[in-house]
Please model this.
Amino acid sequence: MNIYKCKDFYLSSFLLSAGCNLIDTPVSSGITTFIFEDNEVLNNLIKDFYSLKASVEPTKYANAIKTLKSILHASKANSNSKGNRYVSQYRSTRQ
Model:
């Protein structure tokens, strides 16, 4: 499986809201990297995002932002208390 690594929070939120599969969220030196399954759809979404041609349903985007913020806060809380990192796998389905 090919992967795409991203540190851009809002691009990652967009990709998640568009139905891309978030595989992992490793943290290194306090920086979270969002890892997605790489495919042609993801690459087209990235191009559209940066060329300002992308569109997304606002509620899905807001929910994706909340989800990623929860991951960030859980990662920070776990690293402070136990030295562990919150790891989860999100599978989105295209609608």
Observations:
- Residues 82-90 have pLDDT under 50 and may be disordered.
- Helices lie at 9-17, 40-50, 58-81.
